[in-house]
């Protein structure tokens, strides 16, 4: 191993007049090597790096533009959705108000119909009561008339004797005869 190290050391001690050689002093050669590498990279990589940065910039700008367009479309859709929501809320409120008024109207119609039905039932009841009263009065009159007739017949039968009975019949026949002559 010592031979390999010696060979590099011997390369480092070459005469510098007109020859090319390796400098093994790390502290002296690193800044020179780095400046050469950076110079080459800047000279040749400047175009590639600027192209890469321009492409990246264009992609970012396109993405921003697309995002703005999408945001604008989303805002527009949101406004349309809000308008639809307001319209639907208005219609729902109208349906609710109309529903309540329709319920109130139906309630009033039902109450009115119930009152009319009750009034008709009251009229039917009153008519039935009047009819039953009239029928009861007629029955009472008929019984009173029958009882009066029976008493009158009983009184007549007890008071009438054969002679009075014959005179009454004769008087009635005479009246019938007179009536017949008048009509002829």
Automatic annotation (TrEMBL):
<feature type="transmembrane region" description="Helical">
    <location>
        <begin position="32"/>
        <end position="49"/>
    </location>
</feature>
<dbReference type="GO" id="GO:0045259">
    <property type="term" value="C:proton-transporting ATP synthase complex"/>
</dbReference>
<dbReference type="InterPro" id="IPR002146">
    <property type="entry name" value="ATP_synth_b/b'su_bac/chlpt"/>
</dbReference>
<keyword id="KW-0138">CF(0)</keyword>
<protein>
    <recommendedName>
        <fullName>ATP synthase subunit b, chloroplastic</fullName>
    </recommendedName>
</protein>
<keyword id="KW-0812">Transmembrane</keyword>
<keyword id="KW-1133">Transmembrane helix</keyword>
<dbReference type="GO" id="GO:0009535">
    <property type="term" value="C:chloroplast thylakoid membrane"/>
</dbReference>
<feature type="coiled-coil region">
    <location>
        <begin position="71"/>
        <end position="98"/>
    </location>
</feature>
<keyword id="KW-0406">Ion transport</keyword>
<comment type="similarity">
    <text>Belongs to the ATPase B chain family.</text>
</comment>
<keyword id="KW-0150">Chloroplast</keyword>
<comment type="subunit">
    <text>F-type ATPases have 2 components, F(1) - the catalytic core - and F(0) - the membrane proton channel. F(1) has five subunits: alpha(3), beta(3), gamma(1), delta(1), epsilon(1). F(0) has four main subunits: a(1), b(1), b'(1) and c(10-14). The alpha and beta chains form an alternating ring which encloses part of the gamma chain. F(1) is attached to F(0) by a central stalk formed by the gamma and epsilon chains, while a peripheral stalk is formed by the delta, b and b' chains.</text>
</comment>
<dbReference type="Pfam" id="PF00430">
    <property type="entry name" value="ATP-synt_B"/>
</dbReference>
<dbReference type="GO" id="GO:0046933">
    <property type="term" value="F:proton-transporting ATP synthase activity, rotational mechanism"/>
</dbReference>
<keyword id="KW-0813">Transport</keyword>
<comment type="function">
    <text>Component of the F(0) channel, it forms part of the peripheral stalk, linking F(1) to F(0).</text>
</comment>
<comment type="function">
    <text>F(1)F(0) ATP synthase produces ATP from ADP in the presence of a proton or sodium gradient. F-type ATPases consist of two structural domains, F(1) containing the extramembraneous catalytic core and F(0) containing the membrane proton channel, linked together by a central stalk and a peripheral stalk. During catalysis, ATP synthesis in the catalytic domain of F(1) is coupled via a rotary mechanism of the central stalk subunits to proton translocation.</text>
</comment>
<keyword id="KW-0066">ATP synthesis</keyword>
<keyword id="KW-0175">Coiled coil</keyword>
<keyword id="KW-0472">Membrane</keyword>
<keyword id="KW-0934">Plastid</keyword>
<keyword id="KW-0375">Hydrogen ion transport</keyword>
<keyword id="KW-0793">Thylakoid</keyword>
């Amino acid at each position: 191993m010592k031979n390999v190290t010696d060979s590099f050391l011997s390369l480092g001690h070459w005469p510098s007049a007109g020859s090319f050689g390796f400098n093994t002093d790390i502290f002296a050669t690193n800044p020179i090597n780095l400046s050469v590498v950076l110079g080459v990279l800047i000279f040749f990589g400047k175009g590639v790096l600027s192209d890469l940065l321009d492409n990246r910039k264009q992609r970012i700008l396109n993405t921003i533009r697309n995002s703005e367009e999408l945001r604008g479309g989303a805002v527009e859709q949101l406004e349309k959705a809000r308008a639809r929501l307001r319209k639907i809320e208005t219609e729902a409120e109208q349906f609710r108000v109309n529903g309540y008024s329709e319920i109130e109207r139906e309630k009033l119609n039902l109450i009115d119909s119930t009152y009319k039905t009750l009034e008709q039932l009251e009229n039917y009841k009153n008519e039935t009561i009047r009819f039953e009263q009239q029928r009861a009065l007629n029955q009472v009159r008929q019984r009173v008339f029958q009882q009066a007739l029976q008493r009158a017949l009983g009184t007549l039968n007890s008071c009438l004797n054969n002679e009075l009975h014959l005179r009454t019949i004769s008087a009635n026949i005479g009246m019938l005869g007179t009536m017949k002559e008048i009509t002829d």
